[in-house]
C-alpha cells in the first residue's frame, strides 16, 4: 500500500478512536494490528496524544492564569482599600472609616478563601488529571482492551507512576513540615502583633484574626493539600493522617521545651510564646482548610498538653524573677498570648488562673522593692520640720501630701510645716504602690470590685508588714535621739490622718465606693498608731536611760556632817536637760508630752530612792540626808514649774510624794506621828513604807554609833540612841504585824 494511502488509513483510524465509544473500539484496534506499518501507526498515535496533552495544558493554563489575575486584582484592591483606610483615619471621619474597614474585611476574607482554593486548583491542574487517567486506564480502559502487549506495559507502569507521584508529594510534605518549624516563630509573632493592635484599636479579636495576614502568607500549604489528596486517591488517607499528626506531635514537644535561660529576659518568654502560637495557628489553618486531616478533638488534645506544659514552664521560670517590672511585662505578654489563642478558639482560663497566682509573687516582689524605698527615705530624712519659703513651695508639698492647717496657712513666709520630708515621700510611695498593683490587675478579666479588693489587700500588706517594720527600724536603730523620736511621732500622726485620703484615692481609680458592704478597709490607721505608740515607749525608755546616765554622775558624801545649800551639780544638769527636752515636745499630742514628763519624773523619783537605799550605801549621815533633801526639792521645783502644759494643779508633784514624805519623816524626826497614825487613810506619812523607813534608819543607826552623829548633843546621846533602837523595834513589830495580818487575810 502506498505511503499516502497508509497515512490516510491511519488518520481515519485515529479519528475513529477519538469519536467511537469505548465499548466499540475493539474492531478498530484489531484493524490496526491486522494492517501493515504497525510501528508507524504507534508513532502517529503518540503524536496525537501529545497534541491533546498540549491542548489540555493550554486550557488549564488559560483558566489558571485568569484565576491568578483575578487574585492579583483583588490584592491590588485590598492595597487601595488600605490606603483609603489610612486616609480616612487621619481625617477622623469615623462613619466612612468603618465602611472602609468593612469593605477591607470582606475583600480580605474573599482573598483568603480564594487563596485557600488556589493550591487545590494548581494541584488539580498538575496531578489530578494524571491520577484520574491512571485510574480510568487501570479500572476501565485496559481491562476492556484485552491482552495486548502495550496494555500489559501500561498496567505494569501504573503502580510505578502512582508511587512516584506519592513519593514526590511526600518529599514536598517533609519540606513543608521543615518550613513551618522554621516559620512558627514568625507566624506566632505576626498573630500576637495583630491581636495587640486589635486591643489598641478596640476591635473584636475574632474579626482581626479573620482579616489579618495569616499563616498562608508566610508558608505555602499546597504540599499538604496535594499530599492529602494524592494519598486519598491512592486509598492511603489514614496512613497520611497518622504520619502528619505524628510529625506534628514531635514538633510540638520541641516547641514546648523552653530554653534554660528563658527567665533572664522578656525576649526569652516572647520567643517561647511566638513558637507556641505559630504552631497552633498552623494547626487551626489546617483544621479549617482540609477535610479531616486534623479534627477539633485532636487539636484540643494537643492544646491541653501544651497548656499544661506551658503553665508548668512559666511557674518554674517566673519563680526566679525578682524584678517587678519584668513580672509586669511578663504578665502583659501572657495576657496577649492567651488572648491570641482564645481568638483561635482555644480555652485559656487556666492561664488567667496562673496569672492570679503570679499576682501574689508580684506582690511579694513589690513589697521587697518598697521596703528598700522606705528604708532609703528613713535613712535620708533629717527628722526636722520642712522649712517653706514661698507659696509655690507650700503648694508643691501640699500637692504631694494632703495637708490642711488653717492656722499655718495664715502665717507669713518663711514658715515650717510640722512634719519632715519623710511624710510626703512615704505618702507618694504608697500611691505609687497602689498604681503598681492596679497595673497588674488590668486585662485579667476581673470586676471592679475584685480589683479594688486586690489593691486594698496588697496595700494592707504594705502598711502592716513592710512600712510597719521600716518604722520600727527607724525607731529602734542605733543613735536615734529623743528629737528624732518626737519627729517620728509627729510624722506618723499626720500619716494616720491621711489614711482616709488613701481610701478615696483607691476608690477613684477602681470606681468602687469605700463604704461598700464588702469593701476591705485599710489598716493604715492602726499601723501608724502602733508605730506612734512604739515611738512613745521608746521616748520613755530613752528618757529613763538618759536620767540613769546623769544619776551615774551622782557623788554623794554619805558621811557628810551637814548638807549644802545648793542642789548637786549632776542634778542641776539633769533638770536642765529635762527642760530642754520637754521644750521640743511642743508639737506632740498633749497626752504624749504629759505621759513622757510624768514617766520621767516617776523614774527619777524611784531612781533617787534606790540610790539612797542601795546595798553599797551602808551608812547615811543626817548631813547627807539634808543634801539629798535639797536635791529632791530641786526636782519638786522643776515639777511645780510645769515643764509641759496640761497638768492640773500639782499633779506632777505626786511623782515625788514617796520621797518627800520619807525625807520629811527623817528630817523632822516625826516618828511618833508616823507610828501613831500608821494604817489610817489620813496618815501624814501614808506613802512611807515601814520596810523603807527601817532600811534607812538602820543605815543612820550605824552612823550614829560609829561616827558619833549626835556629837553636838552629847548629853542626850544615850537617849537618842535608845530612841533609834526603840523606833527600829517598833518598825519591826509593825512589819511583823502587817505580815501576820496579810497571812490571815490570805487564809480567810
UniProtKB/TrEMBL annotation:
Function comment: Component of the exocyst complex involved in the docking of exocytic vesicles with fusion sites on the plasma membrane.
Keyword set includes Transport: yes
Family under the similarity heading: Belongs to the SEC15 family.
Keywords recorded for this protein, A-Z: Exocytosis, Transport
A Pfam family hit: Sec15_C
Segments forming domain Exocyst complex subunit EXOC6/Sec15 C-terminal: 350-699
Protein name: Exocyst complex component
A GO BP entry: vesicle tethering involved in exocytosis
Domain Exocyst complex component EXOC6/Sec15 N-terminal, chain residue ranges per copy: 44-192
A GO-annotated cellular component: plasma membrane
Native species: Astyanax mexicanus (Blind cave fish)
Residue stretches spanning the membrane: none
Amino acid at each position: 500500500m502506498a505511503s499516502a494511502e497508509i497515512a490516510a488509513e491511519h488518520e481515519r483510524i485515529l479519528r475513529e478512536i477519538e469519536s467511537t465509544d469505548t465499548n466499540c473500539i475493539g474492531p478498530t484496534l484489531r484493524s490496526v494490528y491486522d494492517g501493515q506499518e504497525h510501528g508507524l501507526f504507534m508513532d502517529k498515535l503518540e503524536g496525537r496524544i501529545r497534541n491533546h496533552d498540549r491542548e489540555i495544558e493550554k486550557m488549564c493554563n488559560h483558566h489558571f492564569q485568569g484565576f491568578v489575575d483575578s487574585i492579583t486584582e483583588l490584592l491590588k484592591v485590598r492595597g487601595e482599600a488600605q490606603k483609603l483606610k489610612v486616609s480616612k483615619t487621619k481625617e477622623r471621619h469615623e462613619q466612612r472609616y468603618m465602611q472602609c474597614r468593612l469593605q477591607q474585611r470582606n475583600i480580605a476574607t474573599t482573598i483568603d478563601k480564594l487563596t485557600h482554593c488556589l493550591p487545590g486548583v494548581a494541584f488539580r491542574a498538575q496531578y489530578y488529571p494524571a491520577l484520574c487517567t491512571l485510574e480510568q486506564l487501570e479500572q476501565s480502559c485496559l481491562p476492556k482492551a484485552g491482552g495486548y502487549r502495550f496494555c500489559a506495559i501500561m498496567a505494569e507502569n501504573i503502580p510505578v507512576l502512582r508511587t512516584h507521584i506519592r513519593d514526590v508529594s511526600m518529599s514536598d510534605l517533609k519540606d513543608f513540615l521543615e518550613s513551618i518549624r522554621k516559620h512558627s516563630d514568625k507566624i506566632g509573632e505576626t498573630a500576637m502583633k495583630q491581636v495587640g493592635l486589635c486591643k489598641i484599636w478596640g476591635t473584636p479579636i475574632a474579626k482581626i484574626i479573620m482579616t489579618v495576614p495569616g499563616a498562608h502568607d508566610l508558608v505555602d500549604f499546597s504540599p499538604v493539600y496535594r499530599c492529602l489528596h494524592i494519598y486519598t486517591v491512592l486509598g492511603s488517607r489514614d496512613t497520611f493522617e497518622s504520619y502528619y499528626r505524628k510529625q506534628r506531635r514531635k514538633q510540638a514537644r520541641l516547641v514546648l521545651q523552653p530554653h534554660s535561660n528563658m527567665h533572664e529576659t522578656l525576649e526569652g518568654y516572647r520567643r517561647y510564646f511566638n513558637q507556641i502560637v505559630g504552631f497552633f495557628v498552623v494547626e487551626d489553618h489546617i483544621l479549617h482548610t482540609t477535610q479531616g486531616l486534623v479534627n477539633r478533638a485532636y487539636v484540643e488534645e494537643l492544646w491541653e498538653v501544651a497548656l499544661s506544659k506551658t503553665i508548668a514552664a512559666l511557674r518554674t521560670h517566673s519563680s526566679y524573677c525578682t524584678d517587678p517590672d519584668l513580672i509586669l511585662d511578663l504578665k502583659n505578654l501572657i495576657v496577649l498570648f492567651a488572648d491570641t489563642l482564645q481568638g483561635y478558639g482555644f480555652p485559656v482560663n487556666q492561664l488567667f488562673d496562673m496569672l492570679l497566682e503570679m499576682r501574689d509573687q508580684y506582690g511579694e516582689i513589690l513589697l521587697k522593692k518598697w521596703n528598700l524605698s522606705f528604708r532609703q527615705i528613713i535613712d535620708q530624712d533629717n527628722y526636722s520640720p520642712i522649712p517653706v519659703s514661698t507659696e509655690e513651695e507650700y503648694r508643691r508639698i501640699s500637692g504631694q501630701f494632703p495637708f490642711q492647717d488653717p492656722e499655718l496657712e495664715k502665717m507669713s513666709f518663711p514658715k515650717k510645716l510640722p512634719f519632715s520630708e519623710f511624710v510626703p515621700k512615704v505618702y507618694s510611695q504608697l500611691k505609687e504602690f497602689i498604681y503598681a498593683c492596679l497595673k497588674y490587675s488590668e486585662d485579667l478579666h476581673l470586676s471592679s470590685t475584685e480589683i479594688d479588693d486586690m489593691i486594698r489587700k496588697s496595700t494592707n500588706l504594705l502598711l502592716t508588714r513592710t512600712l510597719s517594720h521600716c518604722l520600727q527600724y527607724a525607731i529602734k536603730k542605733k543613735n536615734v535621739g529623743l528629737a528624732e523620736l518626737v519627729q517620728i511621732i509627729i510624722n506618723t500622726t499626720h500619716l494616720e490622718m491621711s489614711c482616709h485620703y488613701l481610701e478615696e484615692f483607691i476608690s477613684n481609680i477602681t470606681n468602687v465606693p469605700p463604704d461598700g458592704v464588702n469593701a476591705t478597709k485599710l489598716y493604715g490607721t492602726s499601723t501608724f498608731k502602733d508605730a506612734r505608740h512604739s515611738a512613745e515607749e521608746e521616748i520613755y525608755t530613752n528618757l529613763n536611760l538618759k536620767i540613769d546616765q546623769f544619776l551615774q554622775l551622782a557623788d554623794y558624801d554619805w558621811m557628810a556632817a551637814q548638807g549644802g545649800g545648793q542642789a548637786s551639780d549632776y542634778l542641776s544638769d539633769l533638770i536642765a536637760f529635762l527642760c530642754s527636752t520637754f521644750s521640743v515636745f511642743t508639737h506632740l499630742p498633749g497626752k504624749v508630752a504629759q505621759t513622757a514628763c510624768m514617766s520621767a519624773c516617776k523614774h527619777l523619783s524611784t531612781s533617787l530612792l534606790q540610790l539612797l537605799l542601795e546595798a553599797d550605801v551602808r551608812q547615811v549621815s543626817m548631813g547627807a540626808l539634808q543634801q539629798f533633801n535639797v536635791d529632791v526639792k530641786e526636782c519638786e521645783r522643776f515639777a511645780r514649774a510645769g515643764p509641759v502644759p496640761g497638768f492640773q494643779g500639782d499633779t506632777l508633784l505626786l511623782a515625788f510624794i514617796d520621797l518627800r514624805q520619807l525625807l520629811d519623816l527623817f528630817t523632822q524626826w516625826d516618828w511618833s506621828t508616823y507610828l501613831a497614825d500608821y494604817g489610817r487613810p489620813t496618815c501624814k506619812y501614808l506613802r512611807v513604807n515601814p520596810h523603807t523607813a527601817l532600811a534607812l534608819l538602820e543605815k543612820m543607826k550605824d552612823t550614829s554609833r560609829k561616827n558619833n552623829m549626835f556629837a553636838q548633843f552629847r548629853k542626850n546621846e544615850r537617849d537618842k540612841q535608845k530612841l533609834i533602837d526603840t523606833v527600829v523595834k517598833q518598825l519591826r513589830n509593825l512589819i511583823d504585824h502587817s505580815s501576820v495580818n496579810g497571812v490571815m487575810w490570805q487564809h480567810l
